[in-house]
Amino acid sequence: MKTLLFRWPARHGNNRSFRAFVTGGAALLLGCSTSAVAQSGMVMYGTADVAMAYADNHLGSAEYYVRSGAKDASRLGLRGTEDLGSGAELIFTLEAGYNLDDGTASQAGSLFNRQSFIGINHARLGTLTAGRQYAPYWQLLSPLGPVPALTGALGAHPGDIDGLDVTIRHNNAIKYVSPVLHGVSAGVMVASGEHANGGAGTAGALSAAIKYETGPWRLGAGYQSIKNGVQGASWDTAASSSFLKSTVNAGYLSAREVQYLALVAHRQSGALGIGASVSNVQYVPNARSRFAETASFNTGGVFATWQTGSPWLLGAGVSYTREQSANGIAHPANYRQLSLQQTYWLTKRTGIYLLEATQRAHGQTLAADGVTAINAVASLGDSNAGTPSSDGKQTIFMVGVRHTF
User: Fold this and answer.
1) Which of 160, 158, 155, 163 is nearest to 137 (CA)?
2) Less packed terminus of the chain by CB within 10 Å, N or C?
3) How many CA atoms within 13 Å lie on the side-chain side of 40?
């Protein structure tokens, strides 16, 4: 008779609950032994995070407010395994984001809005998963980038334009990530949209990424492409992939396709960590698009962390994002951002944190109509997509507490 083991984890990482489940392919099934005695286990995990915040300009007004998940997004998840024998195991993850301040789901109309997938993991062959999940572009690159050091709320690049935070998720996705071999791991993913009249391949996505670790260095390169659906005048809700929509990219949401390319590097030497990233993102139009020429955004950033001799962890980062000249814009938008974080660890699971960030936006971009050139406005990190500044300046301070379980 099978026994179900339910256990609370002794430690839930450093709030990277959606870390990679090292990897696989269809050949994984060949490693399963029907004679093995199956064992199963399930873990409930999550994060509770809330902060008090002050913004000097939210849509034209200074504002005090409460924000859920300012440092690490509030979530509740179930993760399970079952031993299939011969080094193989079935795995699944169901993860829901929620707003701690009012108890609502972080995405209306979706229960497991962050992740919902099942798959097979093999110690030697890797992991194959299917469902709603993150692309290898994020899975292999984001842990090396600015978000773990600075948090996505105020530390992600403007509007998370390069998708290095967790704002891009893929439905109907099949993903394979290899085991680590001589320091190298790689992953590929394909996803399909949900258009009954357009075929399974309409509004799909694909991604590939590779990571190399040697000594204190970790290096990564990744690519992903996400396609719009048949409702091309805006981003189709039936597309396989969702991404953050902000004033940075509002004029280009009628794109046929969005392409991401990024390189990241990170070096950890004792208590000091340093890193850098560069990325290029292109919004490619077609005949249905409201804009005419490919819109391209280039971003570069550097960051550092220091775990002091005390419980204080300090982080700082700067980034520069520039839109290339196109679609009649002679002076394209650029965004300069400085982000800081200080966390005092009361325990390994509980911390009190301070976040500070400021951004300056210059030049012009396209308005939401995809035609009109307007002055760029500041939109810090990925938490202010709906509450940008009314001009080119925005500064925000947050103080909060987070706990993982």
Assistant:
1) 163
2) N
3) 11
Please, which contacts does 344-349 make with residues 24 or more away whose CB atoms are closer than 8 Å?
Answer: 344/311, 344/312, 344/313, 345/311, 345/312, 345/313, 346/311, 348/11, 349/11, 349/12, 349/403, 349/404, 349/405
C-alpha distances out from residue 107 to 51, 113, 130, 143, 155, Å: 19, 6, 21, 24, 21
**What structural domains and CATH numbers belong to the chain?**
4-404 (2.40.160.10)
> Tokens 């993982």 correspond to what residue?
404
Task: Give residue-wise pLDDT tens across range 84-139.
Answer: 999 999 999 999 999 999 999 998 888 999 999 999 999 999 999 999 999 999 99
Which of 347, 352, 354, 350 shows the shortest CA–CA distance to 403? 350
CA–CA dist 10, 251 (Å, integer): 47
Cβ neighbours of residue 368 closer than 8 Å, sequence gap 6 or more: 250, 251, 253
Cα separation, 289 vs 309, whole angstroms: 54
* Complete DSSP assignment for 34-93: TTS---EEEEEEEEEEEEEEEEEEETTEEEEEEEETSSS--EEEEEEEEEEETTEEEEEE
As a whole number of angstroms, the distance between CA 346 and CA 337 comes to 29
pLDDT for 34 equals 40
> Tokens 């650029």 sit at which residue?
334
At 209, phi and psi to the nearest 5? Answer: -155, 160
Q: What is the pLDDT of residues 270-290, one digit of tens each?
A: 999 999 999 999 999 999 999
pLDDT band at 262 (very low <50, low <70, confident <90, very high): very high
Cα-flanking dihedrals φ and ψ of residue 141, to 5°?
A: -100, -40
305 Cβ contact list (under 8 Å, min separation 6)? 149, 272, 273, 313, 314, 315
**CA angle in degrees (0–180, nearest 5) for 274-279-280:** 170
Instruction: Report how far apart the first and last C-alpha atoms of the chain are (Å, whole number).
Output: 30
